[in-house]
Amino acid sequence: MNKFQIRKAEQGDKGRIWEIIQQAITLRKEQGSRQWQDGYPNEDVVKSDLDKGYGYVVEFDNKIIGYVAIIFDIEPAYNDIDGKWLSDGEYVGVHRLASAQDPHIKGVGTAIMKGVEEIAINNGIYSIKVDTNFDNGGMLHVFNKLGYQYCGEVHFRGASRRAFEKLLK
Q1: Is 5-167 assigned to CATH 3.30.830.10?
Q2: Is 78 helix (H, G, I), strand (E, B) or coil?
Q3: Which of the residues in the chain have pLDDT under 70?
């Protein structure tokens, strides 16, 4: 049995989700990254995720230890890529992936991405598109380990980001 459980986030999870995102913001800063150092994501973004049904949490021993936004809508920034996506059809977009540092448990990012793949397949969508900062070694490692292919660069809030896609069938 998988030790991690992924489920749709509920409004009551908002406080814990925000704690985890703040921990991720602090970690990125400590690692010398500029990712998430510009006021994004913020509490309004988390509220919007929950209102739209995008938010998912990962639990371990009934404690929320991770968060991700799984988006079944078009991501406008993905329409303009310096490079080429593997596919042009429907896809699931992944944003705001964060894992808790209290406790820090190895494998949360991988568990989240495997959960995203399962959710996509269960919804009949066989492509996942995702991006991350150039210096986010943890996520770059997860994408590589799980077979995501580098497709080029996309731009968010004035910054270039590495874009990846994985086809699920």
Answers
A1: no
A2: helix
A3: 1-2
